[in-house]
Every structure is written in structure tokens, then in C-alpha cells.
Amino acid sequence: MSYRMGTMPILDVTEATFQAEVLDRSKTVPVVVDFWAEWCGPCRQLTPALEAAARAREGEVVLAKVDTDANQQLAAAFQIQGIPAVKAFKDGRIVSEFTGAQPPAQVERFFDALVPSEADRLVAAGDEASLRRALELQPGRADAAVPLARLLFARGDRDAALALVENVAGDFQAEGLLARLRLEGEDTVDLGEAFAALDAGDRERAADLLIEALPGADGAKDDIRRVVVAILDELGVEHPYARDARRRLASALY
Predict the structure, then answer these.
(1) Is 140 a catalytic residue?
(2) 77: exposed, middle or buried (C-beta count within 10 Å: 0-12, 13-18, 19+)?
């Protein structure tokens, strides 16, 4: 293995180092593998674009170069039939690939798909300022709007929370929070104990109480259903409680 161009995140990888430098490393950072050969004209054409893309994303992507002539077992293992062949690895698996020389703009898009965008990083930060900035960059983004709405709701700014989730479509968490805000504003059924359990982090008790309230919740059933569905979505489809609760929810509704 040798690092190229100073501190650039570019490696020469062999059959002996592929496991550590590509498969293992890809569990913490995406690794783009360039299968090439010295005699390959299109490989020489593609190399500057690959190295420029890697240099621009130092610390976020690693570029690994595999000489197919010197590492024929690797080439066979990955069924390399034409070069240059470029494969991107995450978590030890190939997640995207292309064959043949590509223009720099296409190479840039290939690398862009592997690294978090500015909005992704802001959402991951999770603080109010970051979430607001993420929504400025991508309005209506559910994974920014919902946590921001929850922050606002927790400090009593109900109207601002409502305005945020009203602009998000097709997201169970947004629909669940919107439904809760409506339910608390209408007072058509007493769900205080259920929402207190939800705020305390006891999702299963909250869902139980909401499902139990359905038979006497004329006019509010659909919003209660949305809150329960959001809870179950958060628990995950494979959660043992969620499987039973979905059955009980359907029975209570129909």
C-alpha cells in the first residue's frame, strides 16, 4: 500500500491489503475502488477526475487503486470484464459502480452520492439552528422539520410546530405530530395520560392508552390512528410490540 499525492486519500491496494484497506475501512468511510491497468488508455483518462474528486472530499471518501494485471484474483473475484471499472463500497458492500471513462461532472455526481450533503450534516447535528438551516436548504425535509417541530412544541410554541409539520407530506412522524397537535387543540377526547406517557418515553403504554380510547373517540379516530401509527413506525416493523399493536389497532378501528 502507498499513499499518493501527499496527504490525499488515495491508496494503492493489493490482494493482501484489500480486506483491511477497502472492506474494513468502508465501515467508517466510503471507499471508491478504481480497477485499472497500465496499458489502459481510458484508465489514464479517468484517473485525473477520480483523484480530483477524492482530493475535494478528503476525510469523507477514500480512493483505492487496484492494478488488475498485478491483482488478477481480485479482478476475477469482482468479475471485472472491462476497465476502468469503478466500484464504491460502504459497510463492506458495493453500493454503486460504473465501467468505462466518464466525464468529470459525472464522476463528481458519483462521489457526491456517497457523502453527506450540507443539509445531511445539519440534520445530524440536531440543534435548533442547524435544523432551521437544513430546512432553508431543503424546505419540507421531514427529518429536519419533525425534530424541530418537537423542540418547538416542547417549549410551548405550538403554532410554530404546527406550521412546520403541516408542510411535510408522506411522513408518519410528521402526520403523527400534526394529529397530536389537532387532538390537543380540540379536546374532543381526554388523551392526557396517553400523551404524558409518550412524553415520558413510554411509547408502548402511550399506544395502549390511545388504542383503548378509540371506541369512544367519535370524530377523533383518524387522528388517534395517526399518532399510534407514528409510535409504531418509530418502534420499527420488527418490534414484537408493534406487530401485536397493529393487530389491536385494526380491530379497534374496524
Answers:
(1) no
(2) exposed
Single out the catalytic residue among 10, 11, 31, 43.
43
Cα(251)–Cα(239) distance, rounded to whole angstroms?
19
Q: Which of 40, 53, 197, 230 is catalytic?
A: 40
What residue ranges do the domains of the chain occupy? 10-112, 118-253
Q: Give me the CATH code for the 118-253 domain, please.
A: 1.25.40
CATH 3.40.30.10 fits 10-112, yes or no: yes
Tens-level pLDDT at each residue, the chain (254 residues):
444 433 446 889 999 999 999 999 999 999 999 999 999 999 999 999 999 999 988 888 999 999 999 999 999 999 999 999 999 999 999 999 999 999 999 999 999 899 888 888 899 999 999 999 999 998 989 999 999 999 999 999 999 999 999 989 889 999 999 999 999 988 788 999 999 999 999 999 999 999 999 998 888 999 999 999 999 999 988 899 998 999 999 998 88
40 given a catalytic annotation: yes
Inter-residue contact 204 to 193 (CB < 8 Å): no
